[in-house]
Amino acid sequence: MNCASDLGLRTGYGQSMTMHFTFRATCKMIHRMNDTRQERILVVGATGMLGAPVTRQLISDGYVVRVLSRDRAKAEGLFGKHVEIVLGDVTRPESLPSAVAQCDGLYISLRGSNNFASYEAVEDWGLRNLLSAAQASAISRVAYISGAGQTAGNESLLPVRIKLQAERQLRSCGKTFTIFRCTHFMESLDLFVHGNRVTVLGHQPHAYHYIAASDYAVMVSRSFRRPTAANQVLTVWGPEALTMQEALEIYVRELAPELKLGRMPLAVARVIGRLTGNHDLRFAAELFAGFSRVGEVGDPQPANSLLGAPRTNLLQWCAQRKIRQAGERSIATR
């Protein structure tokens, strides 16, 4: 299971990020623009925590990027004029033909709201709608983010069952596909912060090779131009294994030492969620119950060989975050 995409809680940080293109990336875009025809990739989920880095990487690598979004202002705030924006919703199939038209590739990063009904509507039926529209289009390549804990023995867990169903749909859709079975993302650590506390739900014994979204984005972008990545299910891990507790200890020490790190038993989270009507907490409790049972599986070596191994460890990611935050504070005080 993928903590970042499955937990799906909102943070102000993800919404406030702005684009920064290096001179080299800009030159690369100009070079691509001189080609007779640029490849156009439709990104679904582009404004999300994991979709936005992929969108920026595709832009930097010279693709024409089209974004399917329910909120034009949000998409424009994140990407400016660097993307084409098509208003639509994966749960409304009539809005999808115009989105897929004239696209060569499709990247899918779906996420429902924090309840299982929405999860199923978006990640199951939404994907069906997307693939149906893609089948009637010129799209030749589809990439999809799944999770590193998606195994047949865990289908009693709804998120696992839906991801496995999605993978089966992709394999049989008639399009060339690449499925990324990703572990937990470093960006997901932001989601543990609530007020002045950082809380882990339940006992989480498994170690995860946390990955930076920017490293993953590079792999996705490369996959669209590498024939060897066609029709592959790739396990994606970062460079070092840490339990949730270990990862959050580093996060708090490096980025937010004023926060208090603690743990809430799953039974307590369920009771509080039920008594207070807090659907987010009830949803999170069920997900973390799954995390406690489902660890990483798979071999990341094929993905590393085909697309390049992720290299950013958590300390480096924290250092990059500090630099970015300092820059944002400097701009805000001008």
Round the Cα radius of gyration to an integer and report it.
19 Å
The side-by-side strand order for the widest beta sheet comes to 3-2-1-4-5-6-10
Q: Report mean pLDDT, rounded to a whole number.
A: 87
Number of helices: 14
Return the string of H and E elements: HHHEHEHEHEHEHEEEEHEEHEHHHH
Main sheet specs: 7 strands, parallel
What does the model show?
This protein has about 325 residues and is an alpha/beta fold. The chain is about 45% helix and about 15% strand. The strands form three sheets. The chain has a seven-stranded parallel beta sheet, with helices on both faces. A three-stranded mixed beta sheet has the order 7-8-12. Strand 7 (about 195) and strand 8 (about 195-200) form a beta hairpin. Helix 4 crosses helix 9 (about 215-225) and helix 7 runs parallel beside helix 8 (about 160-170). About 45% of the residues are buried. The model is unreliable at about 5-35 (pLDDT under 50).
Summary tags:
seven-stranded parallel sheet, globular, 334 residues, three-stranded mixed sheet, alpha/beta, disordered N terminus, 14 helices, 12 strands
Give me the secondary-structure topology.
Blueprint: H1 3-7, H2 12-16, H3 23-33, E1 40-44, H4 51-60, E2 64-69, H5 72-79, E3 84-87, H6 97-100, E4 105-108, H7 116-135, E5 141-147, H8 158-171, E6 176-182, E7 193-194, E8 197-201, E9 207-209, H9 213-223, E10 232-236, E11 241-243, H10 244-255, E12 260-264, H11 266-276, H12 279-293, H13 301-307, H14 314-332
Helix pairs in contact: 4-9, 7-8, 10-14, 11-12
